[in-house]
Design brief:
Mean pLDDT: 78
Helix content: 25-40%
Radius of gyration: 44 Å
Strand content: 25-35%
Shape: elongated
Number of helices: 32
Largest sheet: 5 strands, antiparallel
Number of strands: 58
Low-confidence stretches: 393-427, 890-895, 897-943, 1024-1090, 1179-1251
Structural class: alpha+beta
């Protein structure tokens, strides 16, 4: 299709108003005229060749210019005047000056060689003046010599160009025509009517005319010389016709009217009637959504050179463009009065007042080269450039084994394309265009481009102009052109070109000997006739070619279809050998009125019966003038009568392989009727309903690429050249449900369930059904309503509840009542969300619930959701629910504080944690204790209580408190900290209230290990690692420690001061206790690695909990945290506060566990004996701490603990704060800002810390 690209250029500023512009039949020449002047331009080079100024005597004698017409071969030009004269001009080369312009090489400045870039010198010379004796209304050429014109008196006359003599015996009146009106069966025209416009098609041998009475018709005759044989068939639906045009490829006859409407009629060869195809209207703002129709008179209708787009010029100065079947494409931004296209349709030439414009366009290669590979990428072409948006996942399944070996995966798929599925949620408008510039060595003599073909991988691109061809390899950034210019100029690409496994297949025509042939060139060789690996001579001209797997389909000018099977072998030296075998040939002459009506041909694995397994070549699809025909191939190799799949088809997208449903569907672009999907309905062999159905969907872009398995397309919108994706899965499902094909809709939904936009598809499906019902049945649900059927179908799918909620949130409230009549009560849907643990979806229903039910119902469900969110550790939802509850509550008291802002970085948390570590002292204030809730008889987090008289605040507090108790009992300290931060829960007060319930710990060792695991704190298992070092293991055999000694360990700090001074001040006792016995010199780096502690973040969290438990007088938990931190001062201070048997049992339990699992802790507890023994009422010998019998036995410590310690990141001591885990959030930022680093010091004890 055609899309504007670039800015328009003003080519001419005339002194007189320009009244007409027209191009020659080959569009190489463009002529425009004013009332007295005539300008002739060369379209490709945009060069004015000649300017003819009529003399005053000529204007006085023959009248002013009215319109002009080119001779069919372009060798002459006729100017029609207002006084009924036709001035014939000869367009010839100036022999005295054969070239008036010469192009030069921009880089070197030297002129290009002869024949390239030259612009001929043209002379316009008036030769003959034809006197029509009355005003001429239209002029056309029946042949190159015979001209036909009409007059205001209703006469139709003919003359020969060379002599200009009017043929009196061939003159006849319109009344002599045989008129037929389909509505009246016979029609007698008025006596005074005449032809206002006339358009003749040489291909169809018919003429479209408009009459002065506003009727439109087409004329057909076996011999236009005899008026009695001319049959005028009126268009029954056209009134007020002003202009007409014929499309020979699609067999369309178009009429423009006084009211601005365009009637597009299909020529029916079966009965000879004009059947209305569709009706077009221009819109002033260029957007159909604006619904501002242009009701001014239509001045001219004309088609693009490839007959794929229709342009209409209005009296208001607007010019609109539609695709052949009505898709709106373009609205001109400048006023135009008339226009025409240049060669290949890359520039629109238009006139407006005294100015001549040229508007540049890009077009899709699918208009003239509709092959399968071009449908896998978005491609646009200009006169000398190719614009490509490669497919984000090229189909590797289409590459055969030998093709993979020949091309190589790294060469074909060297670009790591991003999946299209992931790109559906991204802005596709930002995809960059890959612009390939055709080299000057080819474009100077062969532009503009006619055909463009791209490979399946997007790495190979071929172009063909007026002669020869060239191709570009993206991986090598290299062009390959003909080395022999004579060979290039002797070949014309006619019928198309395509890539097949790295082989360029070209449909060529040799004008010298008038023969056609298909050539195959490998991509790695230069282009030469000697590099052709296979050639297939074709007995007639080639209309279209295409491939499927290893099959090549060829349509010839004699309306025959030939299918070849291709085979290729590749040697290690990349020598390619190819062979072909004809496997099928049949005629389509009965179904094609003219060979030019064949638009495309496709070999496919599809059959009309979806229940029959398909695969391989099963059918051939031929698009004949917009009618898609399927020729099924029988097992015997015969072709039966074709099946008409659809009409008004602009392009066809076939699946690359056969599979179920979407993978075996045909996507048909039918213009303004939208995309039609010929979808198979798979069933069992016994199921007689196994067939196909045609589903129609609407799109907002012009589709260029179809993704079958995703039910999505890529295209370009009207207003820009940016790619856009659209999915139609919801429309397919909706149409199947409406047609009572829910079984097939469910099968397709299950196939697409993993698509990232599947949830959005369900939402769109509900929207579509809701809007359809509300527009057709506004008074209530009727039996024909669609929404109940859609809801019943969607209940089988997993995202049903979420889709309904999102749809309701985006729908007007006045439609909620109707929506929930089909889906069910909102409270029931919310209960289903709670049962399925879909909290995010349940939140969406709260807003709906608030508007449909009393506030008390909303508050009850908020409490239920709060309990569920806290149970699943969804603190963000908990915060929102508390805020929501506070907003709708009628109570004046405040709810538990809700933090409005989350901390986003680690530094803020680190600062607050460092402030929180204030040292304990003996006079730490205590909060009053309150009874715990551990004996609750119900599960508050599953079924929160609705006690009469209990406020919403109290209910929320009890839920949060119960969850905090559960987290504490299960040793989930990190989760507890997160809850305290996000919900601003007072942990200290909670611990004080729960002090009596926490006085006993059933399994101290389990809690101790849970603390290590929660905070990723390594175990102090240093001795095995020290002993395993080569410098140590050779000097130590068996070392024993006397556990009965009550004295402090013998340590010589002066001897090892220099070796360990870089270690933290909290590390001292291990070195002395071990090294005093073994007296082994240990390298400080070995010791530093062995004594690794956790991260600074973990240490801050442990200090925080130590302080909280100490202030709450929960000394048993505080002792465990102090042991984990290996802080002697904290341990002694805690034991001093509570020197009970509980503390002693905890120490004994940890010592027993450490003897079996962690030798470092056993050694640490031995070193604690001198400090904690005096604090207990018993003697130190009664502590019964188990001794370490042998140091060597510590080598059997759990290897996982050592491994986890080795993986810990060293603590950061630079004061910048540790890096936080983003998943856990900023956990403990509700700490007291006055707390400093924890140090449980006592003046009476030694200030010694163990790490």
């Amino acid at each position: 299709m055609f899309f504007q690209h670039g800015q328009l250029a003003v080519l001419l500023q005339s002194t007189e108003a320009l009244i007409c512009i027209r191009s020659s039949s080959d569009r190489l020449l463009i002529a425009c005229c004013s009332t007295t002047c005539l300008d002739l331009w060369r379209s490709h080079s945009t060069t004015r060749l000649f300017r003819y100024q009529r003399s005053e005597e000529s204007v006085t004698e023959y009248g002013k210019n009215k319109f002009l017409y080119f001779r069919p071969d372009g060798s002459g030009l006729a100017v029609v005047t207002h006084t009924g004269h036709i001035i014939l001009f000869e367009v010839r080369l100036d022999l005295a000056n054969p070239s008036s312009y010469r192009c030069v090489d921009i880089r070197s400045g030297s002129p290009l060689h002869e024949g390239i870039g030259t612009v001929p010198s043209i002379i316009l010379e008036a030769t003959t003046v034809v006197n029509a004796a009355e005003e001429v209304t239209s002029l056309t050429g029946l042949t190159n010599d015979l001209m036909l014109f009409t007059t205001v008196s209703g006469s139709v006359k003919q003359f020969f160009w060379d002599d200009g003599i009017v043929l009196d015996d061939c003159c006849h009146e319109i009344s002599q025509f045989y008129f037929t009106d389909p509505n009246e069966h016979s029609y007698t025209p008025e006596n005074d009517i005449y032809v206002t416009t006339l358009c003749y098609s040489h291909a169809l041998d018919i003429a479209a005319v408009t009459f002065s009475n506003g009727r439109g018709a087409y004329l057909s005759s076996n011999d236009f010389y005899k008026p009695q044989t001319v049959h005028a068939l009126l268009a029954s639906n056209v009134r007020g016709a002003t202009c007409a045009s014929i499309n020979p490829r699609y067999h369309l006859v178009v009429f423009g009217t006084e009211s601005g409407e365009v009637f597009v009629n299909i020529l029916n060869y079966d009965n000879g009637l004009l059947n209305l195809s569709h009706q077009l209207t221009g819109y002033v703002d260029g957007n159909e959504g604006g619904r501002t129709p242009d009701r001014s008179k239509l001045l001219k209708l004309f088609w693009t050179p490839d007959c794929c787009c229709l342009c209409g010029v209005y009296a208001s100065g607007a010019m609109y463009m539609w695709s052949v079947y009505g898709t709106f494409l373009y609205a001109c931004t400048v006023p135009l009065s008339l226009g025409c296209w240049d060669l290949e349709g890359y520039n629109l030439w238009g006139i407006s007042g005294v100015q001549l414009y040229k508007i540049p366009f890009l077009k899709s290669p699918l208009t003239v080269n509709n092959v399968s590979n071009n449908q896998q990428h978005i491609i646009l072409q200009s006169a000398n450039q190719v614009f490509i948006l490669p497919n984000r996942f090229p189909p590797k399944s289409g590459l055969s084994v030998y093709g993979s070996i020949y091309l190589g995966e790294s060469e074909v798929y060297d670009t790591p394309y991003q999946s299209f599925i992931a790109s559906l949620g991204s802005p596709l408008e930002n995809w960059p265009w890959q612009v390939i510039q055709v080299p000057d060595i080819y474009s100077n003599s062969n532009c503009p481009l006619r055909f463009v073909a791209i490979g399946a991988s997007g790495q190979c691109t071929a172009v063909a102009g007026t002669r020869g061809f060239a191709f570009y390899i993206s991986a090598k950034h290299k062009w390959r052109c003909f080395g022999n210019e004579a060979q290039e100029q002797s070949l014309i690409v006619r019928g198309g070109m395509l890539w097949w496994h790295g082989i360029l297949i070209v449909a060529a025509y040799h004008p010298e000997d008038k023969r056609s042939c298909i050539y195959m060139y490998p991509h790695h060789n230069s282009i030469d006739q000697s590099s052709v690996v296979c050639s297939i001579p074709i007995p007639s001209s080639i209309i279209a070619i295409n491939t499927y797997e290893d099959y090549l389909v060829v349509v010839t000018g004699t309306s025959r279809v030939i299918v070849y099977l291709l085979d290729m072998s590749v040697s290690p030296a990349l020598d390619v050998e190819m062979s072909h075998q004809k496997v099928l040939e049949f005629s389509i002459a009965k179904f094609t009125p003219h060979p030019c009506a064949v638009l495309s041909a496709h070999a496919s694995p599809l059959l009309s019966d979806a229940s029959v397994p398909s695969g391989g070549l099963k059918s051939v699809l031929i698009n004949v003038a917009g009618k898609l025909l399927m020729f099924e191939i029988t097992d015997a190799g015969d072709v039966g009568k074709p099946i008409t799949i659809a009409t008004n088809v602009e392009s066809v997208s076939c699946p690359s392989r056969s599979s179920k449903y979407l993978g075996a569907a045909l996507w048909l672009n039918c213009g303004m009727r939208g995309m039609r999907v010929w979808l198979p309905l798979h069933g069992s062999k016994e199921d007689l309903s196994s067939k196909r159905t045609l589903v129609t969907v609407k799109q907002n872009v012009y589709p260029l690429v179809v993704h079958h398995h995703e039910a999505a397309i890529l295209g370009i919108p009207v207003d820009s050249l940016r790619c856009r994706s659209e999915t139609f899965l919801h429309i397919l499902l909706h149409e199947l449900v409406v047609k009572n094909l829910e079984k097939h809709a469910y099968a397709i939904a299950k196939m697409c369930e993993k698509l990232p936009y599947f949830h959005h598809t369900l939402e769109l499906m509900i929207h579509k059904a809701l809007e359809s019902d509300m527009s057709h049945y506004p008074n209530g649900i009727l039996e024909e309503a669609v929404l109940p059927h859609v809801i019943r179908f969607m209940r089988q799918l997993p995202h049903y509840l979420s889709a309904v909620a999102h749809c309701a949130r985006k729908t007007e409230m006045m439609q909620w009542e109707y929506l929930f009549q089909s889906t069910g009560v909102v409270t029931d849907l919310l209960d289903e969300c709670l049962e399925q643990h879909s909290l995010d979806t349940a939140i969406l229903y709260l807003v709906i619930l608030q508007n449909l039910h009393p506030l008390q119902v909303s508050r009850n469900y908020i409490v239920k959701l709060l309990a569920a969110s806290i149970k699943e550790n969804r603190w963000d939802l908990g915060v929102d629910l508390l805020r929501f509850l506070h907003a709708i509550s009628c109570e004046s008291e405040k709810f538990p504080g809700v933090r409005q802002k989350k901390l986003t970085g680690p530094s803020e948390l680190a600062i607050r944690l460092r402030r929180s570590s204030e040292s304990f002292d003996d006079d730490c204030p205590l909060s009053p204790a309150t009874p715990g809730i551990e004996n609750a008889t119900y599960d508050m987090l599953t079924n929160p209580p609705d006690e009469e008289g209990l406020s919403d605040k109290k209910r929320a507090q009890r839920i949060i408190t119960h969850h905090a108790h559960r987290l504490l009992k299960s040793c989930q300290f990190v989760r507890l900290g997160e809850m305290c931060y996000y919900l601003k829960f007072e942990l200290l007060q909670f611990l004080q209230n729960e002090r009596q319930n926490l006085c006993e710990i059933d399994d101290p060792a389990h809690v101790f290990m849970s603390i290590h695991e929660e905070f990723h704190w390594p175990y102090p298992d240093i001795i095995p690692r020290i002993l395993s070092h080569p410098k140590v293991s050779s000097n130590i055999n068996v070392i024993s420690i006397n556990s009965d000694s009550d004295s402090k360990f013998i340590a010589d700090p002066h001897e090892y001061e220099e070796k360990v001074d870089f270690i933290s001040d909290t590390v001292s006792l291990y070195e002395g206790s071990v090294y005093s016995e073994c007296r082994v010199e240990i390298d400080p780096t070995i010791l530093a690695e062995a004594l690794k502690r956790g991260t600074q973040e973990s240490e801050d969290k442990l200090n925080y909990y130590l302080r909280m438990f100490f202030d709450a007088e929960v000394y048993n938990y505080a002792l465990l945290f102090a042991l984990v931190l290996r802080d002697v001062d904290a341990i002694t201070n805690i034991v001093k506060k509570d020197p009970s048997s509980v503390m002693l049992s905890i120490l004994m339990a940890i010592d027993c566990w450490g003897h079996q699992e962690s030798g470092g802790y056993s050694l640490f507890l031995q070193s604690l004996k001198p400090f904690i023994a005096p604090l207990f009422p018993t003697s130190v010998n009664d502590l019964k701490l188990k001794p370490l019998v042998k140091i060597s036995s510590l080598s059997s410590v759990n290897s996982s603990n050592s491994a986890s310690a080795e993986k810990e990141v060293p603590s950061k001591r630079d004061g910048k704060g540790p890096r936080l885990n983003e998943n856990s959030g900023t956990v403990y930022n509700n700490l007291d800002n006055n707390m400093n680093h924890l140090s449980l010091s006592d003046d009476s004890q030694s200030n010694c810390t163990v790490s």
